[in-house]
Automatic annotation (TrEMBL), chains A, B:
<dbReference type="InterPro" id="IPR009057">
    <property type="entry name" value="Homeodomain-like_sf"/>
</dbReference>
<dbReference type="InterPro" id="IPR001647">
    <property type="entry name" value="HTH_TetR"/>
</dbReference>
<dbReference type="InterPro" id="IPR036271">
    <property type="entry name" value="Tet_transcr_reg_TetR-rel_C_sf"/>
</dbReference>
<protein>
    <submittedName>
        <fullName>TetR/AcrR family transcriptional regulator</fullName>
    </submittedName>
</protein>
<keyword id="KW-0805">Transcription regulation</keyword>
<dbReference type="Pfam" id="PF16859">
    <property type="entry name" value="TetR_C_11"/>
</dbReference>
<feature type="DNA-binding region" description="H-T-H motif">
    <location>
        <begin position="36"/>
        <end position="55"/>
    </location>
</feature>
<dbReference type="InterPro" id="IPR050109">
    <property type="entry name" value="HTH-type_TetR-like_transc_reg"/>
</dbReference>
<keyword id="KW-0804">Transcription</keyword>
<keyword id="KW-0238">DNA-binding</keyword>
<dbReference type="InterPro" id="IPR011075">
    <property type="entry name" value="TetR_C"/>
</dbReference>
<dbReference type="Pfam" id="PF00440">
    <property type="entry name" value="TetR_N"/>
</dbReference>
<feature type="domain" description="HTH tetR-type">
    <location>
        <begin position="13"/>
        <end position="73"/>
    </location>
</feature>
Length: 195, 195
């Protein structure tokens, strides 16, 4: 970096990106427990104060690292077949949300949020609500296209679709696999598909 | 206890009950973080080894404390109206699973289970699976009674019913309230009620 002609502001942005990438590298290597401010500082070759200047806590750093790793590849496709698009998206995102780097960071933040209501609110607002909302957008488009019954509020259905898969991932030893996704979509389509 | 004519075996059982009750009292007073083996031993007036003789870890102690607090009041009623019985049970159990003593112990164990797959398996087997199974039993009886459509496997539906409410409780700041339970049951009945 030293030989790049960066303005102080651009250099700051580059350093932020670098610190988030170091955090994600650590997530993949040592998991959530090892992702301390100390470990990130050591790996990045900076002092802890450099990290605390940008993030007030480990949670704040990990939330931003999660945002960086969370790509638009997690958005729904729209082929005009709502069941197929939901299926494809659930099966594509399940491993992305489970495997490093997202998996350990996400699961660790969810664990910490159990004793920290403010973190739970932030986590929901920045990630889970985003997932629910993109699901709601996709099924609302299907409703407008006549695939799903009209005059039904689908907001809670989006929560059911997301919530069931998160429950399985976080609270059981079962996988979010094809059988689970198909069973969930069977119920969703039985409730809302136009016959 | 010293003046009770207890056999050593009965005395041991009484002491186990007492230690679990002390654990639950602490849960109500100081929450999960304060429920250490040390704190339980201090409150009960015993050495730490007395606790470790019965439970190999804090998680093991807390799992048994949770079992003790979990009463059969959490079972479903069967009035012959499946929607009403599910609704009544969800609204009755939601505060029981949220408030002390169950609430902080359960939420804390769920948090620890995120970094401990063996604990996650035990927690699912002893508690979450039990909830799913009693839900499945109730809706299967409704299917046999002709309230729900025949020839549909309802096992995943039971997971959807439980999972959605756990998701809301654990991962959002929203409440498991009447509006949420009614929306969930609207979807369930739209999918499976005999029309």
């Amino acid at each position: 970096m030293a030989d790049q002609p960066a303005t102080p502001r651009r250099r700051g942005a580059a350093r932020t990106d670098e610190l988030l990438q170091v955090t994600l590298d650590l997530a993949a290597e040592v998991g959530y427990a090892g992702m301390t401010i100390e470990a990130v500082a050591r790996r990045a070759g900076v002092g802890k104060h450099t990290i605390y200047r940008r993030w007030s806590s480990r949670s704040a750093l990990l939330l931003d690292a999660l945002s960086r790793a969370w790509t638009t590849d997690l958005d729904y496709h729209d082929t005009g077949d709502v069941r197929a698009d939901l299926r494809e998206q659930f099966l594509r995102s399940a491993p992305a949300l489970t495997d490093p780097p997202i998996g350990p960071v996400y699961r660790g933040l969810i664990a910490e949020a159990q004793s920290d209501p403010a973190l739970r609110a932030t986590l929901h607002e920045r990630f889970l609500h985003t997932v629910e909302q993109s699901t709601l957008d996709r099924i609302t488009r299907a409703q407008r296209a006549g695939e799903l019954v009209p005059d039904v509020d689908l907001e809670f259905a989006a929560e059911v679709l997301c919530g069931t898969l998160y429950y399985r991932h976080l609270l059981s030893t079962r996988l979010v696999d094809e059988a689970a996704v198909d069973a969930l979509l069977d119920m969703f389509m039985a409730a809302y598909a136009v016959r």
